[in-house]
Amino acid sequence: MDKEGTHTGKLEARLVGGRQSAGRLEILYNGTWNTVCDDGFRDVDAQVACRMLGFGSSGAVAVASDTFGPGQGRILLDEVNCLGTETSLEQCSHSGFFHHDCTHNEDIGISCETQIVLPEARLVSGRSWEGRLEILYNGQWSTVCDDQFGTEEAQVTCRMLGYRR
Question: Considering only CA atoms, which of 40, 164, 62, 41 is closest in space to residue 113?
Answer without folding.
Answer: 62
